[in-house]
Amino acid sequence: MPFVIVPEIFKGIALFTPGGDVVYCVDPSKRDRWHLHLCVALQELLGLSEPPHFLVPGYTATVDRWFDPHTQQLQTFAEVYPAVRRYQPLLNAIFGTEGLVWQLAPWQEETCNPIVLETYRPLFAPLWENHDLVACLDNQQQLTRPKVGQVLSETSESLPSEEQIRGYVLRLFVAGNDIATKRTLETLHQVLEQQLQYPYTLKVIDILKHPELAETNQVSATPTLVRVWPQPVRRIVGELEDLQRAIQIVLS
User: Fold this and answer.
1) How many angstroms separate the CA atoms of 99 and 182, rounded?
2) CATH annotation of 162-251
3) pLDDT tens, 140-158?
4) What is the pTM of this model?
5) Beta-strand pair 73-80/103-104
6) Taking every annotated instance into account, which residue ranges of this chain make up the domain KaiB (predicted)?
7) What is the largest CA-CA distance in the chain?
8) What residue ranges do the domains of the chain occupy?
9) Which residue spans within the chain are E strands per DSSP?
10) Which of 11, 161, 190, 242 has minimal Cβ neighbours within 10 Å of its Cβ?
11) How many helices (H) and strands (E) does the chain have?
């Protein structure tokens, strides 16, 4: 299932887990209480005993796009909390805000303190695990899963079962998180959404943080795009300037 089509005017909210999974919504009516709906969605998806309200607001991001009658232009304001600021490329991909720099939300000691949040780990252990989950809660409050499973955990190595063969597992090996890497990732997401007819998981692995994964996957240069599944393994090494051609090679 593809990403939801983002309208020109909307409010978007994303709720992350400490392990890197995310549920989000795109709402043109800009209703309130979406944070509560997303907590309930996480409870359902991960089989939690109760909604994880303690993730709000420390693990959230919000974006608002509206029409300014004075300037006759669309205006966008996006805010992300420090704990999830590293996911800005993913946020731009799911909300269609390419290249947007998200403003850092103010720290709230009582609700964002990592020491306090850590006390919830024994009761909500699945939140600290990564499930490669990127799920959308649509306007009818129904859960849908888009095609992408962004690498929110760089060390997850799960592969599809035989029943899930109609899908792809891709890995993009990069060196650092610079502007070029962010641009490549955002463009790659767009191309994959346009060209793939089946679900896929894209894992981004920084070899500076995980050199052992580079060695395991025989990666000697960056960027390298690897198709892990379906087999046989295929890869393209070097600058991905022609992303359309790169995708055709990897998925052929």
Assistant:
1) 9
2) 3.40.30.10
3) 444 444 433 333 333 334 4
4) 0.57
5) parallel
6) 171-252
7) 57
8) 10-144, 162-251
9) 10-16, 22-27, 60-68, 73-80, 103-104, 134-137, 143-144, 168-174, 200-206, 224-229, 234-237
10) 161
11) 7, 11
